[in-house]
Specification:
Number of helices: 16
Shape: globular
Helix content: 25-40%
Distance between the termini: 20 Å
Number of strands: 17
Radius of gyration: 26 Å
Strand order of the largest sheet: 4-3-11-12
Strand content: 15-25%
Length: 528
């Protein structure tokens, strides 16, 4: 696999990204200036997974987008510190509501896992006590990191503190931030039926509320479209006020607080953890899926600015559009709901899929376009990854050891970087990569070493070349594709055509493409 270290480029490119907060493309200007040592620090925060179940491919479209953004900034010479939270607090199923109604998500997961354990489900068997929310969270965090590493997300291999768990920041970050909001008049305590006081953020105290989403305070007077419970409306000053901390002694996960034992609201987590981990009141970039814009990110801005006394929380807000599956919204009821491991195990294509193929599939379209995930599209991505790997092999990359990227002084790498600097235009960048394979954007003096350096630069962002997977549905000790191809040729030469057909089918079932050439049968591993 290519070494992802990028040499410095001769003239830095000025990236422009669409800012969801200002609703227009803007030049990217980090909060901190370039240091005397040439360092160009960038602080980035990404909304991560809730760890009550396996993350699905729609979640990972957003996570891959954040990874590509980070790699693009690194390609352009920035020093990125990426933080992605892991939400392991037992929030409610209707936590997007202003008062946190519905069922406890961790309790729902506990009941699901207990039932699965009784049925002998393999993954549930790995959890000793399904009633322990910390065991549930630890199991799904491990599963998320396994999936993230399969899809080559750099944050999965960063220091653990860059993946903060919400439960570790309640007492030391969330509660103090809520106290500051109360002291500054941005939050208040309201008596509840459960005893103690629920803490709400007062949206009327923050005139900028609604700037990100367009949902102004006047528009929300009706109670956020009826999504809040009537009894909780009575204790709030404004229907759109949202929960910061809720006292609830019966909640499966709870913490002591000045307002009684309970749990934090969903929105306060990211505000508190972004400040605690980055050590900054204002960060450079905040990303997430478009479904996070309201209420989650809108509320984060209000909380962070209110608590920190700043005019902004993040300079740049970037949001990935939804992923559709075969033209429809992904849904378990429609049978089109896929986790990463579903796709990799062959649930979509009928045979195992190389993780690099799914990564390519999730990054190949522009992040601000709605992506339609289909079986054919996944197969097309497999073909694209194979072309890149074939070029790497043809130029000697598989035998050359680590190949150093050549930076952006080459016309092909410069064009590649320019596409990415244009609001993360991955489709345009991929187009440049394949044009280079076809002989465009090269230089007369390009030799194979240069070509490999160009590909290594592309792959520092794409990260799909690597080593072709050699795994098969049969054990490697018992399965030798080249030997079987030779057996097929021998069977055909002896006119044992039934045997030849059986061997061919065995290769196909193991995920190989079987071709007859003038030199004999060739079996090559399919990627999807």
């Amino acid at each position: 696999r290519a070494d992802a270290t990028i040499p410095p480029m001769p003239e830095p490119l000025q990236p422009r990204f669409y800012n969801s907060l200002t609703h227009r493309p803007e030049p990217f200007e980090p909060v901190e200036p370039t240091g005397p040592d040439g360092a160009r620090p960038v602080s980035m925060y990404n909304c991560g997974p809730t760890v009550y179940d396996f993350a699905h491919i729609g979640n990972f479209k957003t996570f891959v987008f954040a990874d590509v953004l980070r790699r693009t900034l690194e390609l352009l010479g920035y020093d990125v510190t990426q933080v992605m939270n892991l939400t392991d607090v037992g929030h409610m199923t209707d936590d997007a509501m202003a008062d946190g109604g519905g069922e406890d998500k961790m309790q729902v997961a506990a009941e699901r896992l207990a039932a699965a354990k009784k049925m002998g489900d393999a993954h549930a068997a790995a959890i000793d006590d399904p009633s322990d929310p910390y065991q549930i969270a630890a199991f799904y965090i491990d599963a998320f990191l396994e999936d993230a590493r399969a899809l080559r997300l750099k944050v999965a291999d960063d220091p653990a503190e860059h993946r903060p768990r919400a439960t570790q920041y309640v007492a030391n970050a969330m509660v103090p931030m809520i106290e500051r909001l109360i002291e500054s008049g941005h939050a208040y305590v309201a008596d509840t039926d459960e005893g103690g006081g629920a803490v709400y953020f007062s949206v009327e105290s923050f005139p900028e509320y609604g700037r990100l989403s367009g949902n102004t305070i006047d528009q929300l007077k009706g109670g956020a479209g009826g999504r809040v419970q009537a009894k909780n409306q009575l204790i709030k000053r404004h229907p759109a006020d949202f929960l910061l901390f809720k006292p609830d002694p019966s909640h499966i996960m709870k913490w002591d607080s000045p307002w009684g034992p309970g749990y934090p609201g969903w929105h306060i987590e990211c505000s508190a953890m972004a400040k605690a981990v980055h050590g900054k009141d204002v960060i450079d970039i905040h990303t997430g899926g478009e479904d996070n814009i309201f209420p989650h990110h809108e509320c984060e801005i209000a909380q962070s600015c209110g608590a920190n006394g700043t005019e902004s929380f993040a300079r740049l807000w970037m949001h990935s559009r939804h992923l559709m599956v075969e033209g429809e919204k992904m849904s378990k009821s429609l049978g089109n709901f896929y986790t990463v491991r579903d796709v990799l195990s062959g649930k979509v294509t009928g045979r195992p899929v190389d993780p690099a193929v799914l990564r390519f599939e999730l990054l190949k379209a522009k992040y601000r376009s709605t992506m339609n995930f289909t079986k054919q599209s996944l197969l097309d991505s497999g073909g694209a990854v194979k072309k890149l790997r074939d070029a790497w092999a043809a130029w000697g990359g598989n035998d050359a050891g680590d190949i150093e990227p050549i930076g952006l002084e080459h016309p092909a790498t410069r064009r590649f970087a320019e596409a990415l600097a244009d609001d993360l235009n991955t489709a345009g960048a991929i187009g440049v990569a394949f044009e280079y394979l076809a002989g465009q954007h090269g230089q007369p003096e390009d030799d194979n070493t240069t070509r490999l350096g160009v590909l290594a630069t592309f792959d520092a962002v794409l990260d799909v070349i690597g080593e072709a997977s050699t795994e098969s549905t049969e054990s490697s000790d018992a399965f030798d594709a080249d030997a079987l191809a030779a057996e097929l040729d021998a069977a055909r030469a002896d006119k044992r055509f039934d045997d030849a057909d059986a061997i061919r089918q065995r290769l196909i079932d193991a995920g190989y493409e079987v071709k007859t050439t003038k030199d004999g049968t060739v079996a090559s591993k399919e990627l999807a």
